[in-house]
Specification:
Helix content of chain B: under 10%
Low-confidence stretches of chain A: 1-44
CATH architecture of chain A: 2-Layer Sandwich
CATH class of chain A: Alpha Beta
Strand content of chain A: 5-15%
Mean pLDDT of chain A: 82
CATH architecture of the largest domain in chain B: 6 Propeller
Number of strands of chain A: 4
Shape of chain A: globular
Oligomer: heterodimer
CATH superfamily of chain A: OmpA-like domain
CATH class of the largest domain in chain B: Mainly Beta
Structural class of chain B: mainly beta
Order of helices and strands of chain A: HHEHEHEHE
Number of helices of chain A: 5
Strand order of the largest sheet of chain A: 1-4-2-3
CATH superfamily of the largest domain in chain B: TolB, C-terminal domain
Distance between the termini of chain A: 35 Å
Low-confidence stretches of chain B: 1-37
Number of domains of chain B: 2
Structural class of chain A: alpha+beta
Mean pLDDT of chain B: 91
Number of helices of chain B: 4
Largest sheet of chain B: 6 strands, mixed
Helix content of chain A: 40-55%
Number of strands of chain B: 32
Chain lengths: 173, 454
């Protein structure tokens, strides 16, 4: 029961944190990117001539465009750009209700080991909470933080750090 | 343990001299320059004094014998070399060069006339003897060259596999007698061995002696492992592992190799550390992006929550008397260091300098807290438990994760290189002057210095 209490407190904390972040989200989330394929409830229909299996990772990436959202330095609030991407991800996930995903939280290298692991958890949770707010069932989303252990860009510069501050929605192959 | 101090069973040679153990502190003995009334002593805190010149000749053997660790005369050379490396590595001693052969009878009757000419203020002599029961005896004697006087002696009986420990104990004997500080050479280090590309480092738990010898890997690298910490009795290590893609804390029993999940939570647990009595483990639990500090019995059971402030509360570490816990929290908006009572009451911030502060670790002496300071790069520094007296000791691109030597005089940390992301283990003393790279077969991070071995 400790855990449940903590979850409730945390959501409140997340909201509070988002509230005092430097970048306020836009008043309304922008519309999701236009979908090139017709939405279906079952996801069993593949476009003619396509080898992409509906409900697969390839399908997700083709439909949504990206599995990754980015964060500001030491931040975990979902900004307007990230909201657009997560809204599109949520649409796809709602359309493919059998798919379970893992949300990975990552950090750049400019934080200490333990703090970054906790910060990555905060980022994964922020992205998860947004998906849930868009109608995706919470029990379909597992979160994991990698802290600074798995950078995608290997440089030590602003560009690499910006790419590494991310949450990745991993759909099974 | 297999190393035992020889008090009752001193062999003939050790008994042949009248003076045992320490010379009274009032003993007049000049240091680098013969000044009457000055003690032969090394100042560990000053950055001004020069390292003490010390001679550590190869140790003879009463009878050359073959042992599982090698011939006793070869061991005598190796023991002297280990003592040399330990003392030199402390930054407080400067071994004099030269290879003057010491005959066995001279071990208790030094050739002072010769040693005076070397410039050495202190002289370490000893012997290695194979005993009938398969053990080895290492005798260790410290002399004041100018006063022509024995300062202390110790004998160590070890199994052949533990012969290096006898050498470290000899170095500890010399270090403690001449500095007045506690010993630290006979200790081990657990750390994370790293290899592979920056975006997919393979990380394995490893342990080794504090000088890098006797290196062993404990895990195979299939799962990421982080932040190992020794139990006070050195029988186990508590650490974080991504086993099964579920990052949680485990203990590793060093005798059996058995790994045990500490808290069976569906959520992530991280940043574990034992209490000074070994009965509890403190750690962080992340639930929904909120990271709080808990305590659980080392044998399992129901955890107790210690922090409540929303945010990231992590890197907890007990004071050596177990009454307080230092930790980091971003409750103020940035990472800062806080102290609370062991039951979670009385939480108050102690870091108020510019920048962010992380990974606080209480010195085993209780007098200082080591930390990582963030701002530009990362540096390792120390401050008093009340937050005063901040002193930055290192200046790398990223120096992180301090761990104290058993005597609280030296800090080990890891230094990550800009760009490549490769990390190495380093140590620095409290003057910040003596910075040394610790040899590891691969890259290394997250060092955890063990307590002094029993």
């Amino acid at each position: 029961m400790t855990v449940k209490t903590a979850t409730v407190l945390t959501v409140a904390a997340m909201v509070a944190l988002a509230g005092c972040a430097k970048k306020k989200p836009a008043e309304l989330p922008p519309p999701p990117p236009a979908s090139t394929a017709p939405e279906t409830d079952t996801g069993t229909q593949a476009p003619v001539g396509s080898s992409i299996i509906p409900g697969s990772r390839a399908d997700f990436l083709q439909q949504v465009g990206t599995d990754t959202v980015h964060f500001g330095t030491d931040k975990s609030d979902v900004d307007s750009e990230a909201q657009g991407i997560l809204t599109a991800q949520a649409k796809w996930l709602v359309a493919h209700p059998a798919v379970r995903v893992t949300l990975e939280g990552h950090c750049d290298e400019r934080g200490t080991r333990e703090y970054n692991i906790a910060l990555g958890d905060r980022r994964a949770t922020a992205a998860k909470n947004f998906l849930v707010s868009q109608g995706v069932s919470a029990d379909r989303i597992n979160t994991i933080s990698y802290g600074k252990e798995r950078p995608v860009a290997t440089g030590s510069d602003e560009s690499a750090w910006a790419q590494n501050r991310r949450a990745v929605t991993v759909v099974p192959q | 343990m297999m190393v035992r101090r020889m008090i009752a069973a001193m062999p003939a040679l050790l008994l042949s001299s009248a003076a045992l153990a320490q010379v009274p502190a009032t003993q007049a003995a000049p240091g680098a320059g013969p000044q009457p009334g000055q003690r032969l002593i090394v100042d560990v805190t000053g950055g001004i004094s020069q390292p003490m010149p010390i001679a550590i000749p190869a140790m003879p053997t009463p009878a050359s014998a073959k042992t599982p660790a090698g011939q006793t005369d070869a061991l005598g050379r190796q023991v002297a070399q280990i003592v040399t490396n330990d003392l030199k590595g402390s930054g407080l001693f400067k071994p004099v060069s030269g290879d003057h052969a010491v005959a066995y009878p001279q071990v208790t009757a030094p050739d002072y006339n010769y040693w005076t000419t070397t410039g050495a203020s202190a002289l370490v002599q000893g012997f290695v003897q194979a005993n009938g029961d398969g053990t080895l005896t290492v005798g260790c004697y410290l002399y004041d060259v100018y006063q022509k006087q024995e300062l202390t002696r110790q004998g160590f009986v070890v199994s052949p596999a533990q012969w290096r420990r006898a050498a470290h104990k000899c170095a500890d004997t010399v270090y403690t007698r001449l500095t007045g500080e506690g010993p630290y050479f006979d200790s081990r280090v657990a750390y994370v061995s790293e290899t592979g590309p920056k975006n997919h480092r393979t990380k394995r738990l490893a342990i080794m002696d504090q000088d890098g010898a006797n290196h062993h890997f404990l895990t195979n690298g299939q799962s990421i492992v982080l932040t190992p910490r020794y139990s006070p009795n050195q029988q186990s290590i508590v650490y974080m592992s991504y086993t099964g893609n579920r990052p949680r804390i485990y203990t590793y029993n060093l005798s059996t190799g058995q790994q045990r999940l500490v808290v069976d939570s569906p959520n992530m647990t991280l940043s574990p550390r034992y209490s000074p009595d070994g009965r509890s483990i403190i750690y962080s639990l992340s639930v929904g992006g909120n990271t709080q500090i808990y305590r659980v019995s080392a044998s399992g059971g129901s955890p107790t929550r210690l922090t409540n402030a929303p945010g990231i509360n992590t890197a907890p570490c007990y004071s050596p008397d177990g009454s307080k816990i230092v930790f980091e929290s971003d409750r103020s908006g940035t990472q800062q260091i806080y102290v609370m009572n062991a039951d979670g009451s009385g939480q108050h911030r102690i870091s108020f300098g510019s920048g962010r502060y992380a990974t606080p670790v209480w010195s085993p002496r209780g007098d200082l807290i080591a930390f990582t300071k963030l701002g530009g790069g990362f540096s390792v520094g120390v401050m008093s438990p009340d937050g005063n007296g901040e002193k930055i000791l290192t200046h790398g691109w990223q120096d992180e994760g301090p761990s104290w030597s058993p005597n609280g005089r030296v800090i080990m940390f890891f230094r990550t290189a800009q760009g490549s992301g490769r990390a190495d283990l380093w140590s620095v003393d409290l003057t910040g002057v003596n910075e040394r790279k610790i040899p590891t077969p691969l890259d290394g991070s997250d060092p955890a210095w063990s307590p002094l071995l029993p």
